[in-house]
Structure of LysR family transcriptional regulator:
Amino acid sequence: MNIERLPLNALRAFAEAAREGSFKTAAGRLGVTPGAVSRQVKQLEDRLGMALFDRHANGVGLNEAGRRLAADIDSGLERIAAGVTAARERARSAATLSLSAPPSFLQLWLLPRLAGFEASVRGLSISLDANQSLTVPAWHGDGARLAIRYGRGPWPGVTSHRLFADELFPVCAPSLLQRGQPLREPADLADHTLLDVGWESRQGIDFPGWSEWLEAAGVDDKVAPPQHRYSLFGLALDQAIAGRGVMLANHPIAMDRLKSGILVRPFGERYVLASPMAYDLLVPATGGAPTAVGRFIDWLLAEAAAFDRETLGGKAD
């Protein structure tokens, strides 16, 4: 028999009456009268051409046909419930993630690692926005919105997770150590071009840079100010790799290039300047993230922790 021709309300009334063993109790659960349940069960019996209950003075009881139908209906309802649960889980797992982050961080640290995550997680579409903003983003619309900010915090109205504390140190191309003037001590920087990175101060934050590093190294009166200034870490890094000067870098930006040998630290691990800046992951404080987005957050935090352990030898905060 085609299910479209079956009275679904009658099926529901029958299932409740069969489960409760009483038209009256079933009526209470369904919010109708016992007479309504009786009529709907009778309608189903007429459609099937068989009795489902034995009726007697003290109430009703399922007969053999009724017990078999009740078992089949319960099995079908379990399958429907499982299907609904699976559909909800698929909808929760399939999500769109929008992530805004500083351009150089995206290019130099996140993108080389992101392919591994995407290969392990299906159902997540990732949209990346290169953004140098130092403020908490205004999140609107659908989809999961996350942000990575390079700043000092605090970050009001969101949940923040520390990815990397910041420390600055000079880097340059190996060729710069092999030609021209020596570069063994900070005072030797007087004979080299300094590549500086600084964002516009219109957002009200002063970024630590060469002047602070030179002062901490005790040579601020011996070395001229930086000769070349860039708005992005990546631009300055390209110039340093090309051998055009010495850049003040941090671990997330420089470490992969240091490991590959295309950059070196001319003073080794000496003369490191602790910075008040940090890379923080910002997550909206309200609502739960879809499953795949939650996995991205967990992956990112674990990847950052592993990177710190590898590059800082356990010295990370």
